[in-house]
Amino acid sequence: MATSSTGASSASSTMMRSSSTDENLQQILDEKKRKRKLSNRESARRSRIRKQKHLDDLMGQVSQLTKDNNQTLTSMNITTQLYLNVEAENSVLRAQMTELSTRLQSLYEIIDFINSSNGVFENDHNFEAAHHHHQINDDTFINPWTSFSVNQHVMASADMIMN
Q1: Higher confidence at residue 121 or residue 73?
Q2: pLDDT digit string (tens) for 52-66?
Q3: Which of 14, 48, 127, 145 has minimal CB crowding within 10 Å?
Q4: Three-state SS for 51?
Q5: What torsion, rounded to 10 degrees, do the Cα atoms 103, 107, 108, 114 define?
Q6: What pLDDT is recorded for position 151?
Q7: CA-CA distance, 145 to 103, in Å (whole number)?
Q8: Which spans of this chain does the record mark as coiled coil (predicted)?
Q9: What are the angstrom distances between the C-alpha of 89 and each of 92, 93, 95, 143, 163?
Q10: What CA–CA distance (Å, rounded) separates 33 from 39?
Q11: What DSSP line would sit under 52-114, residue for residue?
């Protein structure tokens, strides 16, 4: 019986050690599980912070791009308005140039007529040369004084100038 008592005691002690080992193992597993949960929570918290920072950065970019876009649109509108003003002014100037060209050509024709009726020109060659001299071209508008001779008088009525 001593053997069996010692055997029972040995089995009981082995069981206690085994149960104690199981408890220790369970505690170790529980501690690892707790640490893993804590690590996961911390990782999720860092991830949320990164996401929020990224979202804040994107919102800042949206705000800056909206501001830049509005400035660009304002600049485009101003430039378009200036372009339209210049285009309108150019149109008026073109119309004035056409009117003045027509008036100037009429004045040259009057001068040619007066000169030819007074017998100033002896033959057609001189008339053509003088008439050619009075033709209007683009150079006349760049340097208008080149088309006039010093001794030439231009006569016009007030009605012609005021129209």
Answers
A1: 73
A2: 999 999 999 999 999
A3: 145
A4: helix
A5: 160
A6: 47
A7: 16
A8: none
A9: 5, 6, 10, 21, 20
A10: 10
A11: HHHHHHHHHHHHHHHHHHHHHHHHHHHHHHHHHHHHHHHHHHHHHHHHHHHHHHHHHHHHHHH
Extract the tokens encoding 3: 């053997």
CA 78 vs CA 57, 69, 116: distances in Å: 32, 14, 56
The DSSP code for 32 is: H
CA–CA separation, 49 vs 43, rounded Å?
A: 10
Indicate the pLDDT class of residue 142, thresholds 50, 70 and 90.
Answer: low
User: Would you put residue 136 in left (φ > 0), alpha (ψ -120 to 50) or beta?
Assistant: beta
| DSSP tag of 123 | S
By the 10 Å C-beta count (0-12 exposed, 13-18 middle, 19+ buried), 136 is classed as middle
Q: Which residue has the tokens 């800042």?
A: 60
The structure tokens listed for 55 are 């979202």
Q: Which residue has the tokens 């893993």?
A: 36
